[in-house]
Amino acid sequence: MTHPTAPDASKHADRIAWLAIGSTAGVVLIAAMLGPFRIEWLSFWKPALVGILLVSMSWFYTAVRKDAALAGALIAAAQLIAFAAVAAPLSYVAASAALPLWDNEFAALDRRLGFDWMSWLDAMNAAPLLHRTLAFAYASFALQATAIVLVLAAAGHALRLRVFMLSFVLTTLVTIGVSTLMPAQGVWGYLHLSSVDSPAIVPVTRDLPLPVFFGLRDGTIRQLVAEGADGIISFPSLHAALGLLFLLALWPVKYVGGIAALLNVAMIAATPVDGSHYFCDVIAGLAIALLSWIAVQRALARLAGERMQPAGPVEADAVFARVPK
Question: pTM for this one?
Answer without folding.
Answer: 0.89
